[in-house]
From TrEMBL:
Residues 322-348 are annotated as: Disordered. PANTHER family: SLR0285 PROTEIN. This is Rv2578c family radical SAM protein. It comes from Streptomyces hokutonensis. The keyword Metal-binding applies. Pfam families: Radical_SAM.
Length: 348
């Protein structure tokens, strides 16, 4: 009984009861008839708790998270968080992209929980499930209140995002970084514009994301780039890896961390349907590459990691040059066209 009696009114709202999963008392459902939000339904909830402990078995390097949203209109086809929408009895495909849960009381709740004597001021990670700077944030403006609370309590935190909207909160980020540890990571897996448009259709372009990295670093905030995902056969050609690392280096990022595409249940079905539609000749190769489960084989992951690390070294990404946008010379040879055919993993 997670979403009983839910009704939707255009440019209006309605109330429902019993959203036990969120610990919320009620849901207000809204749609907005503006081009930016057309086709998106927002479910506003008042959560009872906002700091979440990551389950002990998690592979994540953080223990506490704050996620003001569920679902993400950035709509990345491969998004691993899709599965979590099924816990709400919501669809993990289009539903994940267009049914967005908004914890409207997140800033107040966080401020209260940070002030509790039981809270020990540990690191809080944001953007770990879905993007806290997705389009909805432009309307709901939850992050300024969240960042203010973290700043006022000098509580260390990190943000992972693809949203250039983070620049709206630049002043708050600078203020917070003066009193506590602030880690910002921007996700840019590749720079190929054609691939971006189809596989990450709701996100700002990779170029705009790297511009955001540049602006943040120019304001003294260290930003690492999570080069994720590297998509087998579509963004893993050596020329593509080079172009991406080069652009990341030029943005002034302090580090680059590659991560190969993984396909957990929920994301896997959606991604494979997309692949069948856009790159049908790759379907069999993906079935073989991901035959063992959600992750590509270790040898493949190691190869990508080594290539990216070598390129990072070549382009001088490292703490010694942190915070300074780099002047990277134009490549002397033209970058190869992206290769989606069978050039990379002929053994598979
Ligand atoms: S931006 Fe992140 S959370 Fe949003 S759809 Fe893309 S991968 Fe998922």
């Amino acid at each position: 009984m997670r979403w009983e009696n839910l009704t939707v009114e255009s440019d209006g709202h309605s109330r429902t009861a019993d959203v036990a999963l969120f610990g919320a008392d009620a849901v207000t459902t809204r749609t907005f008839d503006t081009p930016e939000f057309r086709g998106i339904t927002f479910h506003e909830v008042r959560a009872r708790s906002i700091i979440n402990r990551v389950p002990g078995a998690s592979r994540m390097p953080f223990e506490w998270t704050v996620n003001p949203y569920r679902g993400c209109s950035h709509a990345c086809v491969y998004c691993f968080a899709r599965k979590s929408h099924s816990y709400l009895d919501l669809d993990t495909g289009l539903g994940f992209d267009s049914q967005i849960v908004v914890k409207v009381n997140a800033p107040d709740l966080l401020r209260r929980q940070l002030g509790s004597r039981r809270w020990l001021g540990e690191h809080i990670a944001m953007g770990t499930n879905v993007d806290c700077y997705q389009r909805a944030e432009g309307r709901y403006r939850l992050m300024p209140g969240i960042l203010s609370a973290l700043r006022d309590h000098a509580n260390p935190f990190s943000i992972l995002t693809k949203g250039t909207l983070i620049l709206r909160d630049l002043d708050l980020l600078v203020q917070a970084s003066e009193v506590t540890d602030v880690g910002i990571s921007v996700s840019v897996g590749f720079t190929d514009p054609a691939l971006w448009r189809t596989v990450e259709p709701g996100t700002p372009s990779p170029e705009r994301r790297l511009d955001a990295v540049r602006t943040l670093t120019e304001h003294g905030i260290d930003v690492g780039v999570l080069m994720a995902p590297v998509i087998p056969f579509l963004s893993d050609h050596p020329a593509q890896l080079r172009a991406t690392v080069r652009a990341i280096a030029a943005s002034g990022a302090t580090s680059v961390t590659p991560l190969v595409l993984h396909l957990r249940p929920g994301a896997r079905e959606w991604f494979m349907a997309w692949l069948g539609q856009h790159h049908p000749h790759l379907v069999r190769r993906y079935e073989r590459l991901y035959a063992e489960g959600a992750y590509a084989p270790k040898w493949y992951q190691r190869r990508i990691t080594r290539q990216v690390h070598d390129l990072a070294q070549e382009y001088g990404i490292g703490p010694a040059r942190a915070g300074m946008p780099r002047r990277i010379p134009e490549p002397v040879e033209p970058v190869d066209e992206p290769v989606s055919g069978p050039t990379q993993l002929s053994l598979i």
